[in-house]
Design brief:
single chain; 140 residues; alpha+beta; Immunoglobulin-like; 2 domains; 20% helix; 43% strand; signal
């Protein structure tokens, strides 16, 4: 039953976003750019805390130094956000949902999203959390 309630809530939220978008303009016309997150083999994450607001459109650039393979997870943040697109090497992906992004080499990935629910959501590199690869999104 909780899954049905969640599905109804998501549907109502999407209708609300569509109504707001048509009434006030497209919220995805201009994203607030978050400070880029750099994954560095020596020092870990360049940013360990982001403070964002629900209903605001953000672009989160993640860059890897390429010295390690990194699997960056933010499952709860992604679950509680509307993911507009993921851009990799100027190619756009329009996902239905997102669990993680992975770097095998040096490069950048941009995630464009709107947080939907307040809370604190961890992001981390699987297996490297104690080596400086963990952080938190505080969504107000």
């Amino acid at each position: 039953m909780p899954e049905i309630a969640r599905s109804i809530s998501v549907a109502l939220l999407l209708v609300s976003l569509a109504t707001t978008a048509s009434a006030e303009g497209d919220p995805t016309r201009r994203a607030d750019r978050l400070e880029p997150l750099v994954l560095d083999a020596v020092s870990g994450f360049s940013v360990t805390r982001y403070e964002v607001e629900t209903g605001v459109y953000y672009r989160w650039r993640i860059a890897s130094d390429g010295l390690e393979e990194y699997k960056l997870l933010a499952p709860e943040l992604f679950k509680e956000s509307w993911i507009d697109q993921v851009v990799i090497e100027e190619k756009e992906v329009k996902p239905f949902g997102l669990h993680a992004v992975e770097f095998d080499d040096e490069g950048e990935i941009d995630i464009w999203f709107i947080p939907q629910r307040p809370g604190e959501y961890s992001y981390y590199v699987e297996g490297l959390e104690t080596q400086g690869f963990s952080g938190v999104f505080v969504v107000k």
